[in-house]
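cron nightly-structures :: item 1 of 1
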Amino acid sequence: MKIKCDYCGNLIEERSDTCPHCGAALNGVNRMAGGEPQTIEQLRQWYVDHNLPPENVTRFFIGKNIKSPKAFGIYRDSSGDFVVYKNKANGERAIRYQGGDEAYAVNELYQRLKAEIADQKARNAKRIVGDLPKDYTPSSSPKVKPVKVPPVVRNFLLITIVFLIFSGLSIAFDKSPIRGYYRYENTDYYYQKPNWYKYDQTDDDWHTVSDVPEVFEEESRDYRMSGHQGKRFEDSGWYREDDDDDDWDNDSKWDSHDSWDSGSTDWDSDW
């Protein structure tokens, strides 16, 4: 079966160790980091545990082969293959993965779902500080007698509201590192607060580094990957099981008061 290379986008055999087009190492099953769902059932439970809206709202269908436009999904077909797909706005289907590796297939949809959650949270943060439509007029309401609020209480409430708004914005647009694997120029890194680690292919081991690429300073999440083909960082002496750094699993919790607008998703791209 064919899968897409994460780095050049070409289709390659799923059992390949490296991409024949760009030479990048492929992660296969080992791309899974600790604690991430590896089966369709685990991904379905992760979805529930994170308080996400119904599937017909998010348009992410786990374990279902949906044929209608504007849908992401994963299912197992009659031949036993796991299929990860995206139905575009025009109804055309783009297959992201089809093969026997359930962990790999689940991770493809898992990463896309997390990216969509981040995008939706960013849109909600913008909505909080919102730009109201130019023709917006407040709805009429019965006049009520104003309640006098002491200046001290009023100032405290104002400061609290401003603080909450900017805290939400800082989280939504935060580009700082989160725990996990990163790749830059065919070199793998791992971030575990407060240190960066670099993988050395010569001795198949991880070492602390201080001179990480400058792009990691503000755009680290753009270079994040899901695993590593060599010695996993989780198997190294540096790994700490109790490190609950600002992990994606925490970032992905959905607040019930937020709104999910699937119409804002890019439904014209392949993925």
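cron nightly-structures :: done
The first strand starts at residue 2 and ends at 4.
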